[in-house]
User: Fold these one by one.
Assistant:
Number 1:
Amino acid sequence: MNKSIIFCWLFLCLLACQTSHKITPVSQENSILITRDNVGPIKKGMSIKELKNTFSGNHIKKLTSRSELAGITTDNYYIYNDSSNLLFIVSPEQKNDENSRIARIIIKDKKLKTKSGIGLTSTVGEIRKAYPKSEFTPSVDNIILYIPEIDANFEINSGKLAASTWNDTTGIIHASNIPPSTSVNTRTIVWDYSARNLTEKGFWTNLTHRFTNWVITQVPSMIILTIIFIGLLRLLRFVIKKIKKTAQRRIQLNENIDANEGNKRIETLSGILMGIGNIFLWTIFILIMLSKFNINIGPLLASAGILGLAVGFGAQELVRDFISGFFILLEDQIRTGDVAIINGTTGTVEKIEMRTTTLRDASGVVHIFQNGKINTLSNMTKGWSAIVVDIRVAYKEDTDHVNEILKQVGDELLKDNAWENILTAVDLWGVDSFNDSSVTLKIKLTTKSGQQWAASREFRRRVKKAFNAQNIEIPFPQVCINTGYATSPFPIKLTEGQETTRKNPQ
């Protein structure tokens, strides 16, 4: 309940912040004021998106222009009033980006004036009187009158001035030769966001304003997006967990599917799905957050595509690993929990990923193999397992009788409910070889996957117990001691019912 209230509150705050961030309409008195940080309703640091929120769609028109001299293309936004009179021409820092800040404004409205009453109808004499620090700078076909106090340029048509206005050799403008009655054509505001303005008070004021504006408009939505993202991560885990339980339940009800084998398959695939889901959600979340910081993700995506293409040519080994990992999963070659032999190394499969496979051997050592470099793979626990056991007896023993005992032990083990992992009766292979001091008999045990080693240990234990009961000898290495020619062997006489006596050598 509390979480729902908080969520609704954040959502209402977001709506309130977004609706309250409307710029003052053009029709109000302060809309005709020009300062260092604003031109009417247009404020320094404003983005094109905010500009469109300030003026309705029928008052703003976008045109693209190209400078043949500079060889660049720029976006220009023409802003009109209700009478279709041109007010401003606005240019952003970056083209085709609505989050880009306004970099230049050409003022066409004669009503716009500074606090000193300077506007497009003002003369050079009036401008220089109001702003004594103004400077003249020559351009291609105009003379620029720059006013540092308000960071603005007034353009003067040089064609209407005498040639004596500036020296063609030095390029120095003689301000005294420009008549005070000279009128200006346009006024241009250029907003520079570079580091040179760090020492200026207006820079920090604008920076504080922009930061506050960003906090008000973006932070609530970022909080909501973060909550949604965390919820989606938990939802992903919940869904995969439910799928696992459903699949395991179906495996238990299906008698034709081995439960152990099915669970291994489920664990492997669920791990892969969880990894893919996490990568997808994190990618979307990061891209959205970057857009909240006014970072244009379009070039990032394009760069990522080009980079991916370049990496694809140079990372053939990585691509091979992913393809091999895909077919390992598709063909169900190994699963998490299987005992496998990979490139000659035996161990338990702990993790299968698209690029690597992790194996842990009996000593606890972890081995990581690139999927593309797996040359030999042997699964020792897929479907069912089996193990061949060697039983050695003395030459004096009757091998037929020994086989009967082995079969009896195997049948008892098969009937024992505690060892239901035994699938079939013991397969007697008979006499396999004659050794130096023993005869080897082979038998085969077929078990459920991964149970062959435990079953063989239990079988050997019971065989030893049965051989002891039947007085069947299991041979062991014997050593004959020869003391040499100088000493005769130690004569030993065994007498039934008496202790063994030893005679001293003659």
Number 2:
Amino acid sequence: MITVGMLAKIRRMHFRDHLPLREISRQTGLSRNTIRQWLRQPEMKEPAYPARNSASILDPYKDQLITWIKSDSHRPKRDRRTGKVLFQLLQAQGYPGGYGRVALFIRRWREEEAAAPHRHAYVPMRFAPGEAFQFDWSCEYATIGGIRRRLEVAHIKLAHSRVFLVVAYPLQSHEMLFDAHARAFAAFGGVPRRGIYDNMKTAVDKVGRGKERTVNARFQAMCGHYLFEPEFCNRAAGWEKGIVEKNVQDRRRQLWAGVTARHWPSLQELNTWLASECRAAWAGMRHPDCPELTLASVLDDEQPHLMPAPKPFDGYIEQAVRVSPTALVHYQRNRYSVPAEHAHHVISLRVYPWEIVLVADNREIARHARRFERHQTVYDWRHYIGVVQRKPGALRNGAPFDDMPEALQILQRHLLRHEGGDRVMAQVLAAVASQGLEAVLVAVELALESGNISGEHVLNVVARLQSPALPPTSITSHLQLNEEPQANVQRYDHLRQTTVEVDHVD
């Protein structure tokens, strides 16, 4: 196969140097017939040869391999199968060749698809300071509390300065969405005039024609609180919020690598670390439109154009629940206790990202840390004090009382050894409701230290601790001293010298 360089050399040797064909053949190693054939061409042309269609051992498996590659192209990058995995699948179907041929075919197929004309061009976008922010969710994984968990990660990014905040949540729900906005606006130092979203279910109840959207009422309430206007992208038009879309990809490659490399005690500690890393990135990253400036410096210029951030939106989700006979309410397959006097009543349950608040008659009656595992029961033993007043025997096996402070548990174990001890313990717990937990704990600890462990002793100490101190009494007298007393013992020595000793006769 002759190359362009060889053809040019042949032409120079013949037309310029006037060498005979024999000499040209000797120097180039080509046959005289080949040289003669190319010299007969009227002009210099690049040699072209027909493509060789030789059979390959991969040919019977190409259709299946292309099907796998296309199906993987619709998955997230982290879920796509590698070339080695596809090679192993082909081997299971009988492919006898090596991995190199499969890897070469995959690479060439992807290159051809990337160069295909179906890839679109886009118009660069520019945003004024304080004009807009973009929001998006991504799914990531991290090890929290020794368990690998799926997380829903919120990405909020200012369209002008390009500063961003990343917050991880266990769920993609309304209360999480509201919390992410509150954190972002606090970090940015203000609120832009527009928010750009895709058609996520936490914001859009129904997508209509064109720009018609049925926006969720609770989401609208949040927008009205912060005074920004929501704007939703067209269907399958993620490029309309391409700034935050790119942020998702960049943070997955850069920021999340540090997350997966560590084990986190809690989700709160992870979010604290994410916030600090985001701020560090602001100071180190260059703005794409102004490479001489960092994101933090551009944010300083943008902040005067942002609307002032009000107090955080009270972004809870509320629903009515009925209290069970055991003074428990059910939410997402978990149970939370309320004061026993509300049993069988319908109360309001308010869901926050990290807390569950129970409200009755517009008054908070209980607050618990939210559990995201299933089939968990969260007790507050003080909710059941009124029950044990009527049923003191329930103290012996009452599940809520396993969470009492250690001092009360020690007192309970001692009292229950004696007859009527459950009733005495119920009286001590009643003092918690009337006198406060701290006073009762101090009284119990004093009783345990003294060795006089009894309910009467504890209640007596509680009463003394709660009794008001007597005011100091002042004594008024009209008597006056002519000579102020002095602390001088020498006066007594003077009396011994002047006193006449008298013998006493019995």
Number 3:
Amino acid sequence: MNDQPVFRKELEQYMDAYLPILYVDTLENGKVQDILTELAVQKGRGIIKWSLHSGYEDAIAGLRYPSPLSGALDTILLEKNVARKILVLEDIAGELESPAIVSRLRCIAERIAGGTMDDCTVVLLSPLGTIPRALEPYITLMSLEFLSPKKIREHILHFLESNDMPAPVEELLDTFSMHLRGLSETEIDNILSLAVSDDGQLDASDLPMVLRQKQQMIKKSGILEMVTVKETVEDIGGLQNLKDWLRIKAQIFRDVRRAKEFGVDIPKGVLIAGMPGCGKSLTAKAAASMFEVPLLRMDMGRLMGKYVGESEANMRRALQLTEASSPCVLWIDELEKAFAGAGAQGGSSEVTTRLFGSFLTWMQEKDSLAFVVATANNISHLPPELMRKGRFDEIFYVDFPNQGEREKIISLHIGKRRSADLAKIDVAALARKMKGYCGADIESVVRDGIEAAFVAGKAHVTTEDLQAAIGRTHPISETMKDAIEEMDKTYKSKKFTNASREE
């Protein structure tokens, strides 16, 4: 049974449309070759293959000989036995760095597009590398589908049945199916073999192994970062509206099968905008903890490449890895820096616009359990398309903490460091003196006050120690007064949902 119906359909459509070069970003060459063989038989077409290890091979013509790619392409350019053929070139990424190879491929593509090479298609099989500018107009990028949780579920059951092992309970089976998403059948089989090798069964104790496999995959990419999460929702002082909203989405995430059966939409994500140092990044980490899934961080600096098409390829890879790692939370910090300039003309702005377009399309169409938490300080630099309905489920505005929230934040930071002193400290008085302080400012005051008390040789930290620290602190509302006032006007005019509950 074909487990790649969408890929197979697209491949057939592209071949029928005589698109000259199809670049399949894959490590599963065998699976693609099987689909190509099926299509070739169906359409009465032959296959010519080239790879580094086997050279040139035309089974129908009875030709097979070691050859560098340049020689194989020269043979094809001579139009020997190429009519109605699919030209499959493996291990191609490194070869595209050669101007001579690029020139030959471009010549073939032009002949196919011009109709002088009858019913031919070039298929490149390789992990995606840099696409030369000269080939961009002729290349169509493709990728295999991820196995669906349903298919993975069937694969797990088949594996266990083949080895006379009991199936886990339904809930655990669903969990494994979700966490194994993005892995190949071979990788899944390897993990399952390791999982059952110790006790002859698949159980909850084997789940960490899956997470380690995902971590390896992400680490090797060099594009995304898997963040270790220690923070919980209890570490957030205030932002009650936002926390309540996240709790609802987390409940759906944790029971997604029943939620979907009930007609509930899968949560897409949230944009948290507002003042610097007020808990936006902390909320992203706490969300991953609430959802009980890994946290991935996208660093736009890592996506930007120096070669033509490299940045776009990195974005595609990042989104594919996110899909493969789902269920997960994808954290995009300082979103305005990532997509500032999108829509403008020329140079880096055009690259940013293409990256922005890829991201928007993914956000609009994704149905995976990848929940996006995007944070931004100044949304005036963001394209308005990003804030339309259908992108994020909700947009929250984070203001400076109110009196009650400041009290909670002060108590949290003192409690972590000097819990025994907390009862004797006038937290309310301190909070009143720290109006206009962000969460980071408050934490700095607590650290400074405790440090000063220690250096002075005191046995306890007092209210006076912390009041003295306040006097030495210049909050962000002072140091960035003009920018803060402008941001405040912008956010209030947008009428975003307030992350805090009114006192």
Number 4:
Amino acid sequence: MNDKSLFLAIDVGTGSVRAALVDRTGEILKLVGQEHQQIVPHYGWAEQRPEDWWSGATSVIRQVLAAVPDAANRIEAVCACGQMHGTVLIDSAGQLTRDTAPLWNDKRALPQVAAFRKSHPSDLYLAATANPPTPAWPGFKLQWMKANDPDAYASASTVFMPKDYINFRLCGERAMDWTDASISFMMDPATRDWSPRLLEMLGLDRAKLPPIRSPLEVLGAVTDAAAAASGLRKGTPVLVGGGDYPVSMIGSGVVSAGTGSDITGTSSIITVLANTPMLHPEVSNVATMDGLWGRFMLLDSGGDAVRWARRAFHQNQLSYDDVTRLAGEAPAGAEGLFFLPYLSGERFGEHPNSRAQFFGLAAKHGLPHLHRAVLEGVAFGVRKNIEIIASTGVQLEQIIAASGGAKAELWLQIKASMYKTPIIVPAEPEGGVIGCAMLAATAMGHFSSLEAAARKFVRFAREFQPEPAAVEVYDRMMPIFERVYAQSQGVYDDLDRLVDTNPDTTSA
């Protein structure tokens, strides 16, 4: 690797598109972002314009190139990652057949998911897709488009994910990588190709799906038109790349079986790497960059639970640091106070209408106990998910924490004790950018594997070990948490009916 070698990373996020120049040591020399609009035409819908992604990408690329001397000539390869599930349709001429793409958080396909669940028991589809159905998956979004926007669907020749559209504009080639494809609800995990069985169940056209390729492959080279638009050198290699979530995992050092990833932002995603997917109606599976599988479960309320507590108890007058400080005044276990963190229900499983609750509240409990219970409640919920994933014998050796939750030391210490597993935190929080650079450097032959690239590019700043006294407390509390969770299921439908039938006493 030349001392002056650079790699260009592009991250097409939900809130912005970003570009970064990363050098051969893994240092980010320049990072620039540009926000783009999320469109909400109806309740539960969420869309963006792919053209906004491209115009934003060209803008931020030009800005990072201008910031570093001779950058365009020093870039060895370009690699993009992007928000997953955003479903883009283009025709044979490369033109969009829909101006907007429904995003990962778009819920318009709920009727399609409900109909699929009703018609197909899990044993008929799990082996063919390794994932439970949800409106996030592109397969159901395509079902909706076929039924509700038939002209756009019929005239489309290729389905893209967000980073695929950027790649197409850069090099003119059509493909999807196996990380994005693996959680489309259309890829066969055994073959890493589109599943004829699932496509038949969904009523979708195989011909509209692009080839599935390795994220490490070179897709093509920057075209004349893309060079003129972006300032990149014509002929610069463009990688296939991957979804932002699995790319961020490798960028934070999650590259070997037995390693877990804790990504706590608004939600909390726990992922454990294994050699095979886990076929379970509550467990999702994403293919990793280098051929492993990330078995993951999602808790909708992660950081959102802390945000709720800050608003509900303090009307947002306290900082998050102050809230955490209060939580630290209470002992491990919050003196028998439990919090079930299901503020917005559950995304998978049989109880999407779950509720949050405090249990065990007594006169001795004050604000510190309430706040600690919220932090511990999220960790209890994640531990329940970890135990499901580990039920097949997967050994979790360490967890690497990323995203906003990696900044809260008390929460990390709670999690290490709750999960009985060491938690380490990368020094560089931009896991997506670093992951793209690792892919590019490996694809260009500078590393024999992504694991070797991680040893060079990823550095760790902090480590949290389980505390034996807290471990004992949480082990005693966990069966009670599970019992309260199980016994609460029977009243969720009753609560729904109560809310539906009660008059709105707040309306005039």
